[in-house]
Inverse folding.
């Protein structure tokens, strides 16, 4: 976001430099007269620099005032997951930075007009009657080059924002593996004073599981770490191959659940069976695996019936009885990894998270769960309430803000660059009005004039667009880490941005071209 703001500032600097250069060209006769009367070139340059400093200074002051007004509103849009978000504000350090940026901007926008004033030649300008010198090829190329630069910067920024927006759209639409509607996770850790022994805690958890599952319109089941909760319980898993090959070691997430957990979460069993109440501690040890683990460990065979061991119980060999669909556990943007499900009755891990799905109001369901908990164990607190839909929102909050802010900065950058194209061509039309009038008087068609000026604008746009595409390609690696399911060099995004910029650039050139074609030859020549 900071880089995008810098690019927008760069586009604004180039645009204002172009405008001030055009203004300096219109003042060449005045500057030439002042030089002829003895004013040193350095004094004229300082005068123009001071004018630029006043202009930029007022802009910087307005920016600081806007920052005081808008930063609190912008901070309100930021997700709470951003570290130290409450400390964001217009501090003395920020004011000092703004002062430095304002000074640098004043120098950047004023240097070209100042050099123009310092190097004006009175005899040439006065001999030309104020014309001729203004048509200097060097100045024309300079102003065209500035337009190409700002188009290149804005295209680079627009490509970046388009990639981020595409990435966020695909992230939001990505397959989550479960339906978050009506799901809430409650963390309940038994009070050690009230439930001293393992048997007492196990009895309490069983009673709580049945009581929560009996809530009106609700289904409940326990798990050690629900999706998007921030809890990650990974461990080493060794997979035994039926062919007698050596066991394969994998790092997998371990999910310890009660039999109806998958049904509550809405995760289908795609092969084999799920857990059943008969999967108790004194029966055959079993496990479920997700599709990612099944593909990694048994790419060419049926995982059902295969065996594995986990680091928790390295001597306990479990039989895989089913394969379940993949679930995004850490966040929507984190790729699905290998996962093993273990029945709670056959694991030493604690299941202190209850997942409840309700058809009614979530707040009422949570209140009812608190009441049930208070009845069963008054000393046991409800330590956390996690609404899964809100967890998904938090999971994508930073990518959303990133795409929103960078896009909001890219649009004015593109608008400024197109304004630059319009300004250069409009100035050229005003500069060449006599020439255009003569050509029209001699029989040139208005359509030909329109095509000539429009093609000039399209060439500037195309040159800037090519430079912007090259810059975006060179910087694509910097964006790779922020993108989901989209390449940093995405042909569709690059083509779309190129086409849009080219069309709008041609429109920006067409408007002054139409004005050129509407010049009245008689009026133009009489003005001369």
């Amino acid at each position: 976001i900071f880089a995008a703001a810098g690019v927008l500032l760069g586009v604004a600097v180039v645009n204002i430099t172009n405008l001030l250069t055009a203004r300096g060209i219109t003042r060449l006769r005045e500057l030439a007269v002042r030089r002829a009367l003895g004013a040193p070139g350095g004094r004229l340059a300082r005068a123009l620099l001071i004018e630029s400093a006043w202009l930029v200074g007022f802009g910087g002051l307005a920016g600081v005032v806007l920052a005081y007004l808008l930063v609190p509103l912008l901070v309100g849009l930021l997700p709470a997951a951003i570290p130290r978000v409450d400390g964001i504000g217009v501090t003395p350090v920020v004011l000092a930075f703004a002062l430095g940026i304002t000074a640098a901007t004043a120098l950047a926008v004023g240097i070209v007009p100042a050099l123009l004033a310092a190097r004006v030649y009175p005899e040439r300008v006065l001999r030309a009657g104020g014309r001729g010198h203004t048509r200097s090829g060097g100045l024309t190329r300079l102003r065209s080059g500035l337009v190409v630069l700002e188009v290149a910067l804005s295209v680079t920024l627009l490509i970046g924002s388009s990639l981020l927006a595409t990435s966020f759209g695909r992230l939001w639409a990505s397959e989550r593996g479960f339906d978050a509607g009506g799901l809430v996770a409650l963390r309940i850790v038994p009070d050690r004073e009230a439930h001293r022994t393992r048997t007492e805690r196990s009895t309490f958890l069983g009673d709580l599981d049945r009581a929560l599952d009996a809530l009106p319109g609700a289904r409940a089941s326990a798990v050690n770490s629900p999706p998007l909760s921030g809890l990650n319980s990974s461990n080493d898993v060794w997979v035994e191959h039926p062919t007698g090959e050596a066991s394969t070691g994998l790092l997998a997430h371990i999910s310890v659940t009660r039999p109806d957990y998958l049904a509550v979460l809405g995760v289908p069993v795609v092969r084999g069976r799920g857990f059943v109440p008969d999967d108790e501690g004194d029966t055959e040890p079993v496990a479920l695996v997700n599709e990612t683990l099944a593909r990694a460990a048994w790419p060419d065979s049926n995982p059902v019936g295969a065996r594995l061991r986990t680091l928790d119980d390295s001597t306990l060999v479990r039989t895989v009885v089913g394969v379940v669909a993949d679930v995004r556990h850490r966040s929507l943007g984190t790729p699905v990894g290998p996962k093993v499900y273990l029945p709670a009755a056959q694991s030493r891990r604690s299941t202190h998270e209850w997942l409840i799905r309700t058809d009614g109001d979530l707040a009422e369901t949570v209140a009812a769960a608190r009441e049930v908990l208070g009845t069963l164990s008054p000393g046991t607190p409800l330590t956390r309430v996690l609404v899964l839909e809100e967890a998904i929102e938090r999971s994508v909050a930073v990518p959303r803000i990133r795409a929103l802010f960078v896009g909001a900065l890219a649009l004015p950058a593109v608008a400024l660059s197109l304004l630059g194209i319009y300004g250069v061509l409009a100035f050229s039309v005003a500069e060449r009005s006599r020439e255009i009038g003569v050509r029209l008087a001699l029989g040139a068609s208005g359509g030909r004039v329109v095509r000539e000026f429009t093609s000039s604008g399209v060439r500037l746009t195309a040159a800037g667009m090519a430079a912007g595409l090259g810059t975006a390609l060179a910087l694509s690696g910097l964006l790779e880490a922020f993108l989901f399911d989209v390449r940093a060099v995405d042909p569709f995004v690059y083509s779309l941005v190129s086409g849009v910029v080219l069309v709008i650039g041609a429109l920006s050139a067409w408007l002054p071209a139409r004005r050129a074609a509407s010049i009245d030859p008689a009026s133009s020549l009489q003005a001369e």
